[in-house]
Amino acid sequence: MPSSGPLAFPLQALSWLGNQGTRAIAAVLLVAIAVPPVGALTRPYVTEAIFLLLCISFMRVDVAMLRAHLRRPALVIAATAWTTIAVPALVGTLARITAVDAAAPDLYLALMLQATASPMMASPALAALMGLDATLVLITLVTSTALVPLTAPLFAYALLGQTLSLSPAALGLKLAGILAGAVAVATVIRLAFGITAIRRHRAPIDGFNICILFVFASAIMAHFLADLVAGPFRMLGLAVLAFAVFFLLLGTTMLLFYSAGRERAMALGMMVSLRNMGLMLAATEGAIPGTTWLYFAMSQFPIHLAPQLLRPFAERLRNKQLPPGETDHDLISRARE
């Protein structure tokens, strides 16, 4: 990183921000709430912000680590099937049983868009910050994201019907276009600068990632204070529901994959519970009802706060990341043979 020149200070500032870890993720949400006028400026750029977050995540994919986990694909296949197929089916079934689909169709739409979304692209970074198995999260994230343009339209057709203004086919095409475009841009960046340079500038890239996350968070939370004053009990109810869904997915996933090891189970639980609702917003171009948008806003609280709140628990599992005597370095070495 250059120590002088016009880019020195911005790079240093981004590096400092990137080194704040989960604290910065939580602070982003609080600042976004505190300055609602910024949200009015950033809201038109939600799609672009999500696209940049995807580009950064694909740009940083470690191919050797992906190959290493593909050598033992059973766990990846099971986790991918769980997050892309079982979770939407589970949420849809619970919503039907509790009659949420009939009583609150806009909320039902929000829950189904959340359930059919792929995990957040920031999941591997958050897993690494918490000391969890980021490589397992990364490969499962890649496989499940690749399937979303196929699975999301199917669930939209089967469970949403006319609730979604966008047709299932159009949703699939938009998701595929966004993801393919992000992969293409990320590939160009990797070829131009090289993976070594990308790794060397991890901190400023993390800082830039947090800045983009702020654009998304401020857009989502632009009307939070006004909505809170207008309907505090409604907002409280949506917040409770958002945390309940988060911990339901986290706890169920941890129990389901407990046999793979507690640390891996928690890593997968974090990934599954952190859904990329921003991708669905980008695909629908923000054309969703007010209650759906409000639920997306309240869901930012568990997304931004849980990594910081759960980090002490995750630290207790640091020594159980891989089977005895095996390390990430061993996996990477075998993949490169």
From TrEMBL:
InterPro entries: Na+/solute_symporter_sf
TM helices/strands, residue ranges: 21-39, 75-95, 107-129, 136-159, 171-193, 205-226, 238-258, 279-298
Claim: Acyltransferase is one of the keywords in the record: no
The keyword Membrane is annotated on this UniProt entry: yes
Keywords: Membrane, Transmembrane, Transmembrane helix
Lineage top rank: taxon: Bacteria
Record-given protein name: Na+-dependent transporter
Organism, scientific name: Bradyrhizobium ontarionense
Highest classification ranks of the organism: Bacteria, Pseudomonadati, Pseudomonadota, Alphaproteobacteria, Hyphomicrobiales
